[in-house]
Amino acid sequence: MLSAGLTGFVTGFMLILAIGAQNAFVLRQGLARSHVFWLCLFCATSDAILVTTGVLGFSFLVEKYPSLPLVMAWAGAAFLMTYGMIRLVSAYRGDYTMELSGKTLGLGATLATAAAFTWLNPHVYLDTVGLIGAISTDFMGSDRLAFGIGAVSASFVFFFSLGYGARLLAPIMTSARAWRILDVIIGLVMFAIALKLIS
């Protein structure tokens, strides 16, 4: 069971390690020190639900609704492009009074944005439901349970480390120029992910 759990943890951690839309948003909120706990809890819990769904089996939904991946891809791409444009417009305007003063979106708006990044992103389903679900079939019984618990644990460790670890970069983010650079990077990443989704 220990080996299965460790495999699940490493697999889950590696799949969410790459900078994506959700991770970039958590990083930005962590830098702003805004609603970090609730945001990390929301993202990790969402991943836990998706991982559990993958381990229990999700392929039947795709078989029943073959167009589901395509619909999700276009919806996700539209959202990512919109958010990417918002970040680039913010960088162009250069007004970071709120960020520099420590003020950001309210909790409701923050969680709503996180929900869109999480549930409208087909890559999240591919990684958590598809790949982790497929790998979990190598294990049976209690070993599969241990694998799932390991993968879920990885999500909690990753998001809370990212959210609170972002504070280490806080000394760098003390100027509008630094926030502008971050927004340009995030905006370009959003466009790249969106184009990858629909290509």
Helix/strand layout:
Blueprint: H1 2-17, H2 21-32, H3 36-56, H4 59-64, H5 68-93, H6 97-101, H7 107-119, H8 122-136, H9 142-165, H10 176-198
Brief digest:
The protein is an all-alpha fold and 199 residues long. It has helices at 2-17, 21-32, 36-56, 59-64, 68-93, 97-101, 107-119, 122-136, 142-165, 176-198. It has one domain.
List the keywords.
about 200 residues; mainly alpha; about 80% helix; about 0% strand; globular
Describe this structure in words.
The protein has helices at residues 2-17, 21-32, 36-56, 59-64, 68-93, 97-101, 107-119, 122-136, 142-165, 176-198. Helices cover 81% and strands 0% of the residues. By secondary structure, it is an all-alpha fold. The mean pLDDT is 81. The chain has one domain (2-198).
Label the structural class: mainly alpha
Counted by DSSP, the helix tally is 10
What's the total count of β strands?
0
The tally of domains stands at 1
Shape: globular
Strand fraction equals under 5%
Q: Biggest β-sheet, characterized? A: none
Termini separation comes to 40 Å
Percent of residues in helical segments? over 70%
Secondary-structure element string: HHHHHHHHHH
Weakly predicted, low-confidence segments: none
Kindly provide the radius of gyration, computed on alpha-carbon positions and rounded to a whole number of angstroms. Answer: 18 Å
**Mean pLDDT, all residues:** 81
